[in-house]
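Here is one chain, start to finish.
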Amino acid sequence: MSANAPLPDCPLCREPGGIPVFQAPQWRLIRAEDANFPAFYRLVWQAHVAEFSDLGPDQRQACMEAVCAVEQVLREGLRPTKINVASLGNVVPHLHWHVIARFDWDSHFPNPVWGAALRELPDAAVQRLPLSLQALDQRMSERLQGLLVP
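Its structure:
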């Protein structure tokens, strides 16, 4: 598939979409700024496409390898209760994958992050993580760099 031109009214074409962690030619990884879910990452496809099936076979493989690597880093570094992976795009129809570490102590668990909160945390969620966000981002960057080496 050929790269689609950026759309001026698409927020993921105009802006990174969060805190930049790593950028590859075809995709970028950002960390969402969400106090309730500090280990919330988005893998954003660089070209403007709406659906996963808009990608060619090699692009789909590269995209899912990156999503899998993000999930693995979260599992290894944080030991979460569960990882949520989703590609919704109902509000922003630009292909991106949500990869979110979930914990049985988080404010919404077992509800989806977009659902109703079930509890208030006595301290910030980020303080409960076994790694700092900077260390987690560094691990992400190192793992994703390894995907780009032939």
